Amino acid sequence: DAMVIQNPRYQVTQFGKPVTLSCSQTLNHNVMYWYQQKSSQAPKLLFHYYDKDFNNEADTPDNFQSRRPNTSFCFLDIRSPGLGDAAMYLCATSRGGIYNEQFFGPGTRLTVL
Amino acid sequence: AQKITQTQPGMFVQEKEAVTLDCTYDTSDPSYGLFWYKQPSSGEMIFLIYQGSYDQQNATEGRYSLNFQKARKSANLVISASQLGDSAMYFCAMREGPSNDYKLSFGAGTTVTVRA
Fold it and tell me: Tell me, what's the pLDDT at B101?
């Protein structure tokens, strides 16, 4: 089945220790998104790629970076995680266009010790 | 200004009954899409149903239907015959025209608890 895969599902890191979260898709969608979601809140968009074009949200901290080496893969790098970065990180994909839904991966739950 | 408003933080519903989740939206763009997602405690966001701004009929998908009232800018989700597995957080979201880079604006969500 075509899908969005996130690895790992659970990630524990130490304060200040860089961490990379991975997302891959078999849907061949041209848009990929990274969201941060804290408990009982709506997902907050960090950035997205339209093909290779990177779009950063204005309020995304510099601590968060992303790479998309090819259509299928997208990575979220947190350079120096703080306690406030503990959250669920959701990757999503979609075809371009207003009327296309976003397909979400299962998420990576990040704990910062 | 909030683009999507969900005024019900939490709701209880009896199994087998119907429940309506409210959603109002704000946009000046004539072209937009409205989406509902379900998020169980496991965390995955599951797409439920979609309504386009030019659609004449209300969307339906199994036990889910969307009550689209364009003039009132509302897009309420109706879940019929609730099941225990429907207990989850539900998000209403909107996607506006190309000038918005195809981003989704989410509401704050409504937690639904289905009682046996």
Answer: 63
